[in-house]
Amino acid sequence: MESIKTKGLIIKSSDYGEANCMITVFTENMGIVSAGVYGARSKKRGLGASSRIFTFGEFLFKNSGGRLRVEEIAVREGFFPLCEDIVKLSAAVYFADLAYAAVGMHNKDNGVFRLLLNTIYALCYNDIDSDVVKTVFEFRLAAEGGYLPVLDLCAACECEPQGEIYFDIERGGILCESCRRPGSIKLTTAAHTAIKYILSAEDKKILSFKADNNVIALLANISEQYISEHLDRKFKSLDYYKKIKGSN
User: Fold this and answer.
1) Which of 22, 50, 78 is the endpoint of a domain?
2) Same domain, yes or no: 163 and 58
3) pTM for this entry
4) Which domain holds residue 124?
5) pLDDT tens-digit series, residues 107-129
């Protein structure tokens, strides 16, 4: 029976049977995998607290015929403040769903792994509005997936736009006044500058920008449409996040 040790972040967890649970883990070495935690709710094994969603740590798996089971979890970070804030928790669930959709099972992607882990950390411990974190994550995830939007030249005629510019979700970038289409979203200079910063900044600085609430709302609308278009699906967890965010 093969033993595998790797860092990972639990992105889904569900109980089954009287004492067991199944977890989905975004690992550093194997991508996203599913594994059984047998006796997770047993006082004897004591893995219950370690197998909760958004636990980050060192996992020891046993591989038996392609089926993984968890032997040990050395917790490095529990992200416990998420449990105290339903808005942040719902945002984190949405981010995990996006990462799962972008990467799929058993596909190693350390870029998305680091992005998700750093985003959960920022959401949990930094005093930054969750809509800002969401917007940054959506744009950076699109870039990690190879969907970097065209921001310097018109995505249709390839000229340098003069005057007003628009963001077109399907075209994957900005359009000039002459090329804009129905449904294109008018970009303010501040919003255009913010998108360029988000996509070009170093990882440690991607949340270090200032914008007023109107700009954030515009960016949030664009980023969620953009990632949904390229992943070709809608997310119930986004709907839930927006509902919870709106009620707070």
Assistant:
1) 78
2) no
3) 0.93
4) 84-247
5) 999 999 999 999 999 999 999 99
